[in-house]
Model the fold of this input.
Amino acid sequence: MRTGSISAIVTTVRRGQKYTEANRALAARTAAALGIPNVPRGSDSLEELRAAYGVDAALVARRGLLTLVTAEGELFFHPGMAHLRIKNLLLGHGDHLVTALGLVEGMHVLDCTLGTGADAIVESFAVGAQGTVTALEANPLIAAVIADGLAHATGDNYDMHAAMRRITVHHADALTYLRTQERDSVDVVYFDPMFRRPLHESAGMNALRVLADMRALTEEAVAEACRVARRRVVMKERRESAEFARLGFDTLTGGKYSRIAYGVMELNK
Done:
């Protein structure tokens, strides 16, 4: 059953597992927010449910958090390397993204490509409680999974979890959103478009790639970002990518031996 443009259902894990009531509440809340069917799990497999409802994906309320299940794999919230990157920042070792964005406490960041959320977490930590990070995600299912994880995932790292809770997530197309923003309304704008050739394969990344916005970044989006940002516009890409030159990113920074680099536009306003 397709509701609008979202080809998905929401369900829970099978009965008998922990967090039963929390899972049911999360499934109901998610279905209402996205306008898609909330399907009782029963004894059916997820493959059977997807086939029965004619959808590409299932959002599963599991252990009080959302998992996105497709034929290509599963996507669930995990902070990834954000934990280690924040630890390095606390030790004074720095972070290549933080350096590229020029982040200091109190700055306002617009992250146009939320993805798994790891970069947004590091950005939020770097700008602190007085700063803001607004993160955009074009796909509503990815936005739902990552936003729920940022808001509710737990662990023993206070600094990371405080940073997670401060991130504001919007399901929005980046260019459409940028067009609505006032001139010089944030300090920096960050783009991390999906690489045409992935650096690595995993079930989570496969599930992300099949639903992610694969369109190339446009000159118009970069121009709008330059209008909205006061200080910098930054794009992450493969180090050898021709996208930097095509879009006008003349300054590259990042790890000397890293396969990725950050293109930086310094805005002189």
Summary: The chain has a mean pLDDT of 90. The first helix runs from residue 20 to 34.
